[in-house]
Amino acid sequence: MILGATGSIGQSTADVICGAPGLFDVVAVVGGRDVAALARIARQLNAKLAVIADPSAYGALRDELSGSGIETGAGPLAAIDAALRPADLVVGAIAGAAGVEPTHAAVAAGRTVALANKECLVCAGPAFMRTAAAAGATLLPMDSEHNAIFQALGGTDPKSVERMILTASGGPFRTWTRDAIDTATPEQALAHPNWSMGPKITIDSASLMNKGLEVIEAHYIFGVPADRLDVLVHPQSIVHGLVTFSDGAVTAGMAQPDMRVPIAHCLGYPDRVTTNARRLDLAEIGTLTFDRPDFDRFPALRVALEALSHGNGLPTVLNAANEIAVAAFLARECGFRDIARCAEQVCMEFARNGDAREPESIADALALDRAARDCARKFIAMA
Ligand SMILES: NC(=O)c1ccc[n+]([C@@H]2O[C@H](COP(=O)([O-])OP(=O)(O)OC[C@H]3O[C@@H](n4cnc5c(N)ncnc54)[C@H](OP(=O)(O)O)[C@@H]3O)[C@@H](O)[C@H]2O)c1
Question: Which residues contact 210 (CB under 8 A, 6 or more apart)?
Fold first, then answer.
């Protein structure tokens, strides 16, 4: 089952599946709006069901798949129903908080969920993890850094971990001045040096908000306190995550920057699936470098880490404000620097007014998400 089948992770998942013929049967593929891509991937994977979340796209999807024998559905409820179909593994790869409800439905049904969608945990981490524990669901981290850390842990209890380090490539603005970053265009921010990804995560990578969201994700998925999580800038994107154990030993998860590697790990787990991802040749690369992040040039990372330390629902608020600001930036309704400013202002407003509380449930998290989006829209309108 692939939620977010038409996106970058969805396409890479399809690549891994097609590269391992006979290993996987695809129960369902779910997309947002891109009917042509969904129909193509449903046929390519011989899926039993294809669901498009946009209800107005139903007729087009039915037409595209007529005669294929693939069942079709449309609308947010059909996406949730699809997520509930029995499956050995659900890939959660919808972008943004739009993924919370379908992914949570799969978790509540006790499925094994390979989670690429970090916003699920940033928006509703405590409720998500409580549901997973109660339903006996397994979460496999598909995000490259978390997957590297998961592999570096090698089954060791995260409680005996002294530090977890997530690396960041530094994005396209790693060497830029603060003034140049502040006035960057969408085209410049979308030109990621190492990774090819969907637009939202690419902008988050340019602002380093992505690394902040990932630290929050790591906190929830591994149950490690915020003060044991670190970020290092590593422009080569070869070492994705490191674990320092209480005896001083350090293990690292390494691979070429290719999402098919963590995807294959999740699809095959606990076995291995063969991919044709480029193999790592450290002698060819020669030098790996690491730096501390610069919070002055990349304030979004600082704001995200502060939201995690503050807790009390601020990660939910941060995620919502960031989604609104990134969409506004891509639509040229605000500048690049307004992304971090919007996230910070909205978090400060909710913290000051006492409007943010730790969401007890998914419904609470989504209500807080909506309120924070309203506040962020007002900020953007004045930016
Ligand atoms: N790309 C990467 O390398 C990468 C790496 C690590 C983690 N992640 C995480 O994985 C997630 C997906 O990233 P991506 O780069 O694949 O994004 P993407 O290319 O923008 O794809 C997003 C997917 O979500 C679908 N979608 C959007 N709104 C939806 C809705 N309301 N209901 C159902 N589906 C909806 C989209 O459908 P349509 O296109 O049909 O509208 C598309 O399939 C994000 O959370 C990201 O942070 C990505």
Answer: 168, 201, 204
Identity of the amino acid at 218? A
pLDDT tens for residues 169-207? 999 999 999 999 999 999 999 998 888 899 999 999 999
CATH of domain 146-382: 1.10.1740.10
> Letter for the amino acid at 266?
C
| Residue 10 CB–ligand 1 contact under 6 Å | yes
Q: Using an 8 Å Cβ cutoff, are 231 and 301 in contact?
A: yes
Instruction: With beta carbons less than 8 A apart as the criterion, state whether 206 and 187 touch.
Output: no
Tell me: the pLDDT tens digits for 50-60?
Answer: 999 999 999 99
Domain ranges of the chain: 2-142, 146-382
Indicate the pTM of the whole model.
0.97
Helix (H) or strand (E) holding 139: strand 138-141
Sign of the C-alpha dihedral, residues 182, 187, 192, 193? negative
Q: Would the CATH topology of 2-142 be identical to that of 146-382? A: no
The whole-number pLDDT of residue 174 equals 98
- Quote the ligand 1 centre to 365 CA distance (angstroms): 20
Question: In CATH, what number does 2-142 get?
Answer: 3.40.50.720
* Structure tokens given for 243: 């674990």
Bridge partners of 51, per DSSP, are 30, 73
Residue 337 to residue 184: CA distance in whole angstroms: 8
Q: Which of 3, 6, 146, 194 to mutate to test the pocket of ligand 1 (most atoms within 8 A of CB)?
A: 6
98 lines ligand 1 (CB under 6 A): yes
